[in-house]
C-alpha cells in the first residue's frame, strides 16, 4: 500500500458503505416523494446511488466484478419494467431478488477457488496467499465469514420482500433498516471469528494488519502471486 494513499479504519469504511447503500437511497426516496415525484421514479433514483458508487469504482481503476455488474443490471431492468408497468412494488421486489441472488453468489464462492472474504482482503491490500495454501484455520475462518455474509444477504432479502408484499409501498423504505439486523449480526459474528483468528495467529484475517484500508479502489484484474 503506497504511503501517500489515503486510508481509513475498517470501521469507517463500514459506515461509508452503510451510508451509500442504505441511508442515502432511503433519504433520496423520501426527499423526492416529498417533492411530489411518483413512487417508481423516486425508488429508481434511490437505486441509482449505489450504481453511481460502482461507476466511481470503475473510473478509479478498481474494475467492475460480476457482483457489481449484476447489481447495475438489476437496477436497470427493474427500473425499466417498473416504469412501463407503473408498479413501484415490483421495483422493490426486484431489489430483493437482486440481493437474494447476490447472497447466493456469495455462498457459492465458498466452494470455489477463493471465497469472497479472501478476495475482498486481497483488494484491501491484505493478500494472504501463503496462509490460504498452508493454514487450515485460515481457510476455515475465511469460509465462515463468507458464509455469514451470504446468509445475511439472503435473510435480509427475504424479510424486505415480505414487507414489500404486505405493506404500503411508501412505508417499506422507512422499514428497510429492520433487515439490517442480519448484516449487523453477521458483522458481529465475523468480527468475533476474525479476532479469535488474530489471537491465535498474530495477524488479521481480512483487513491489513494496520487496521486501515485504502479509500481508493484496488485493481482486481491482476493475477494472484505465483505459487
Topology:
Layout: E1 7-9, H1 10-34, H2 39-59, H3 66-85, H4 88-108, H5 116-123, H6 129-134, H7 136-166, H8 172-175, H9 181-201, E2 212-214
Antiparallel strand pairs: 1-2
Helix pairs in contact: 1-2, 2-3, 2-4, 3-4, 4-7, 7-9
Q: Based on DSSP secondary structure assignment, what is the total number of beta strands?
A: 2
> Stretches where pLDDT falls below 50 for ≥5 residues?
217-227
| Classification by helices and strands | mainly alpha
Helix and strand succession? EHHHHHHHHHE
Mean pLDDT: 78
**What is the CA–CA distance across the termini?**
22 Å
Helix content: 55-70%
In percent terms, what proportion of residues is strand? under 5%
Radius of gyration: 19 Å
Main β-sheet description: 2 strands, antiparallel
How many domains?
Answer: 1
Spatial order of the strands in the main sheet? Answer: 1-2
Polypeptide structure, described:
There is one protein chain. This protein is mostly helical and 227 residues long. It has helices at residues 10-34, 39-59, 66-85, 88-108, 116-123, 129-134, 136-166, 172-175, 181-201; strands at residues 7-9, 212-214. Strands 1-2 form a two-stranded antiparallel ribbon. α3 packs antiparallel against α4 (88-108). The longest helix has 31 residues, at 136-166. The protein is elongated. The two termini are 22 Å apart.
